[in-house]
């Protein structure tokens, strides 16, 4: 498309899109997501027990994670949401989420100072739901 200015000269329209602002915005968003993603994964303060023979295994994004803090509060998929679940609601939550996954794997993150009765209860509920439970620990640094 051509335009004529006051002097009678013909000018063509600029038909290219300037992508520099788009790239700038995308890079800023990338940095923001890179910074906030680890924070969402470890939102609950838990002092994991340390073991020598801990295997390094990455939990997938769709993994079922149950976290128990030192006071015995249970958090279901507790990284991004800090709301504790009711102990009586845990069996129903487990059944509902395990029905959606094929591997039936549950990661249990328990604080080192958590009362054993709470961990035993969660393990019992996971066993009733026929889940494969993995206890999450930290490796001892030499």
């Amino acid at each position: 498309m051509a335009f004529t200015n006051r002097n009678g000269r013909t000018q063509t329209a600029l038909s290219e899109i300037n992508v520099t602002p788009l790239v700038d915005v995308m890079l800023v968003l990338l940095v923001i997501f890179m910074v906030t993603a680890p924070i969402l994964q470890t939102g609950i303060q838990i002092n994991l027990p340390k073991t020598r023979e801990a295997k390094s295994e990455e939990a997938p994004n769709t993994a079922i994670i149950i976290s128990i803090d030192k006071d015995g509060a249970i958090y279901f998929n507790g990284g991004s949401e800090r709301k504790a679940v009711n102990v009586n609601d845990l069996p129903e939550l487990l059944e509902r989420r395990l029905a959606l996954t094929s591997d039936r794997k549950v990661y249990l993150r328990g604080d080192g100072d958590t009362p054993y009765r709470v961990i035993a209860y969660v393990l019992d509920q996971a066993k009733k739901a026929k889940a494969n439970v993995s206890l999450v620990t930290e490796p001892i640094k030499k």
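The longest strand covers residues 105-110. The chain has three helices and eight strands.
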